[in-house]
Write a structure and sequence with these properties.
Chain lengths: ~160, ~280
């Protein structure tokens, strides 16, 4: 029986306490222990961005963070993005403009795009493309993702 | 993908961290952001028994700028360097190089000390350390010592660091305001590892001739290196188009290039010359 580590954390505003093994990543715990399977596993080595979540307000790959490292941290995932039935403007625009096809990359891209718009409400296309460079999509060719982010940014600015 | 079984410790003092590494006898590894170590664990390239997390050592997070140069604490992240506006003047070469490190998710956690200790031949920070004659400060069970960057990187993923030693800071010598510099990197996508990168600088004498030329190469051999033949060419010369072209030729002729799945050695030699040429052109502009 391997050693267990006690973690106290907040995920999407809800308090959690759990025991985990040291080798469990934040991604493992979110999906397998906390049943928050919206965050996807792609490469598990930090190349694809599918598991992008926020830890203490900065976006990270959940596959490259040990769950024990998030003891005391505030974690935000895709499950906290919509308010009940009301989609976040980014989610709404991805739906309307086909920014999502197979959907595996979508939660990570939405989290990353929200982080961008929080920092820069009016990004250029180039800024969006560079910001999302760590999020791979094999379906859309990216163009519809970029347009969805631009449309959501515009709506969020009230323009 | 799942990581191999391991244990975890999160000490709150450097001495405690060193003691844990020493007790681990080579089976313990420091965790300094983990943006290279975690993929290595996932691929089972390494399987340490214990990870010693350095995140609760705030003294390793400082960026200090003084007349002596720039001191980067080992746990300074790429994001911290990007956001520190003082560094634009205090060390523009560092800032330019770090802009090429990975993508934003990784930049939010990856650290200077982690990258130096990992010693990927294609990583920017080891290359900047070698190019700039940086000193690497480390603390181990036997006490503190300072290692010159030129003596630190032994080969790919292999350094002079002992298993119980923790890098505490990287010291970059002072950067004169009028120094000329250039950084050029080629990767298939921005943020990918360099297939080749050139980091270089020189000062100028009263007549405008280059002195104190430092030309560093990243991602070409099994560790970052300087190119003494190219530096010898530049020193005492005006950096004009003919000199730049000659520098590119000497680079391609002398650099020790490795072959891997990304590129042949011949391609890398050619690319190395092109990177030096472009970096010199931007330095001289």
């Amino acid at each position: 029986m391997s050693k267990k580590y006690h973690v106290t954390t907040t995920v999407n505003g809800d308090g959690y306490e759990y025991l985990c093994e040291a080798q469990q990543t934040l991604l493992d715990v979110l999906r397998d222990e906390l049943q928050l399977a919206g965050t996807k596993e792609g490469c598990a080595t930090g190349d694809c961005g599918a598991c992008t979540v926020m830890v203490d307000g900065t976006m990270v790959c959940a596959c490259l963070v040990l769950a024990v490292e998030t003891d005391g941290a505030k974690v935000d995932t895709i499950e906290g993005m919509a308010q009940g039935d009301k989609l976040h403007p980014l989610q709404q625009k991805f739906l309307e403009l086909n920014g999502s096809q197979c959907g595996i990359c979508t939660p990570g891209i939405l989290i990353a795009a929200r982080a961008l718009l929080a920092r820069n409400p009016d990004p250029t296309e180039t800024e969006i493309r560079y910001w999302l460079a760590g999020n791979l999509c094999r379906c859309t060719g990216y163009d519809k993702i970029i347009r969805s982010v631009q449309a959501a940014a515009k709506e969020m600015r009230g323009a | 993908m799942k990581l191999p079984p391991l244990e975890y410790a999160c000490p709150t003092s450097l001495s405690e961290a060193v003691a844990l590494l020493a007790a681990g006898g080579g089976e313990a590894r420091a965790l300094a952001g983990g943006q290279s170590l975690m993929p290595m664990l996932a691929f089972r390239v390494v399987a340490p028994a214990l990870l010693v997390d350095l995140r609760k050592l705030p003294e390793l997070r400082e960026i200090e700028i003084s007349a002596d140069g720039v001191r980067l604490g080992a746990m300074v992240r790429w994001r911290d360097i990007e956001d520190d506006e003082r560094l634009t003047a205090a060390h523009p070469l560092l800032k330019a190089a770090v802009a090429h490190v990975a993508h934003y998710q990784i930049r939010n956690r990856g650290t200077v000390g982690g990258s130096i200790a990992h010693a990927d031949p294609a990583a920017e920070m080891p290359g900047i350390a070698v190019t700039c004659d940086a000193e690497i400060a480390a603390t181990g069970a036997a006490g503190q010592r300072t290692i010159r960057a030129a003596d630190f990187f032994l080969s790919a993923l292999t350094t002079a660091l002992k298993h119980d030693e923790i890098i505490t800071e990287i010291r970059l010598p002072a950067w004169p305001a009028k120094r000329r510099w250039g950084f050029r990197e080629f990767a298939r996508r921005r943020g990918d590892f360099a297939m080749a990168a050139a980091a270089l600088f020189y000062d100028q004498d009263a007549a405008g001739k280059a002195i104190n030329a430092h030309v560093g190469m990243i991602g070409v051999g099994d560790r970052p290196c300087r190119l003494p033949e190219v530096e010898a060419l530049l020193n005492g010369r005006t950096i004009d188009e003919a000199t730049i072209e000659r520098a590119a030729e000497i680079t391609s002729a002398t650099v020790d290039a490795q072959e891997d799945i990304h590129a042949s050695a011949a391609y890398r030699r050619s690319l190395a010359g092109t990177m030096v040429e472009r970096a010199l052109r931007s330095a001289a502009a």
